[in-house]
Amino acid sequence: MLRLLVGGYAVAYLLVRFAHIISVSGMSATQWRPVGPVVVLAAPLPAALVVISAVAAVLLGVAFVAGWRFRVTGPVFAVLLLWVLSYRNSWSMVFHTENLLVLHVLVLAVAPSADALSLDARRRGVVLDDTPHARYGWAIRLMGAVTVTTYFIAGWSKLHNAGWEWVTSDTLRVYVAYDNLRKVELGAGYSWLGTTLAQYGWLFPPMAAVSLGVELGAPLALLHRRIAAVWSALSWSFHVGVLVLMAIMFHYPVSGVAYVSFFRVERLHDRWLRWRQPRPAAPT
Length: 284
Description:
By secondary structure, the protein is mostly helical. Helix content is 64%, strand content 0%. The protein has helices at residues 2-16, 18-22, 47-66, 70-89, 99-109, 119-124, 134-162, 165-168, 171-186, 192-197, 204-216, 225-246, 251-255, 266-276. Helix 1 runs antiparallel to helix 3. 31% of the residues are buried.
């Protein structure tokens, strides 16, 4: 189920952003700043290769979701997803909103996540077994650990750069006001609510404290499932707040898929099976 949800999101993201991903082939070479694995290139790729790599990523993503020849298609898709998104981020500006998605796909790609509910399992005639086993559990725990680590790093960087003034001063207010003003000047979409609330300085220290608490407290989600559920809800609310105040969309967390490793999503399959079972006829 994690493979289906995360992989399905990745394919949908590639399709929705396809035109944006390949648009970099038309940019000026002066905007070329390779990041991640793309640093191995001495110059930008030809436009045809950019398009081919994006199309291949979508096709391999479909194979990833379907669980077809997963031992090969799984890792290849994960590496290609990393490459395609890194190549896009090598132009004009770096989007860090995709990092967690790529990391989750990488974990699932090297895990036995296609042993059930996949074309490979159907071909082998595998009988579903719900017995918990460490060979499957480690990937789920690692996905959770990766998730909370990204949030903790974000919180730690705030303390490293701004110190406790992030909470006690109007630093967050300045960020919100500046980001919205920049978008207004550029003619881009901005947050009307963010520009309005920027007039009220007393609102922002409490919001800054909550955001910092969510990020630095992220590792607590690994202690218990209920804590993870509460933290996931708070984190999701945090991203909705960023969207409302700054018009910045963290698609993966806002979709909720970023947190699915903390929940028993296998129950979705159980509910599907119960829904498909024919209901007993009413007595006459």
